[in-house]
Write a structure and sequence with these properties.
7 helices; alpha/beta; 39% helix; six-stranded mixed β-sheet
Amino acid sequence: MNPARRGGNSLIAMNVAIITVSDTVACGQRQDASGPAVAARCQELKFTVESTHTLPDDPAQIRSLLSKLADAQNIDVILTTGGTGIGPRDSTPEATQAIAERLVPGMAEEMRRKGLAHTPRAILSRGVAAIRGSTLILNLPGSPKGAVESLDAVAALLPHSVQIIHGARHD
């Protein structure tokens, strides 16, 4: 178990990595808005943002970085933003599933369900939630507003989820 953890439901720290997946951001044609929005929300939630990254919509690069971050064992949650839609280059869910050991479909379903309260387009998000090793991976939409709303939909569950992934018992 991460030395920053205590027993019970109390977490001292939860380490997060954020990956923005966007061709236009990665090549410098557009400034990243969703990654910083997610990072700001994580800080408000008292999560520690350990690292931020930007990648193009390239499945091999996404798989590689997800694996590297999860396997390092110092990241509790990886939040991706972007690449979850139905466009021809959107491949974040497939890359996540390819490196995942287990899926957590309820979290992705809840993000979509809560998103529908804001826009009917939320149903088009194909984001998944998965576990690799002791790291939870959540695919958030690419829009800053949608990414933060999706994070908020499951944020209260993240500390408990991380504790369970690290071997704590259900209360």
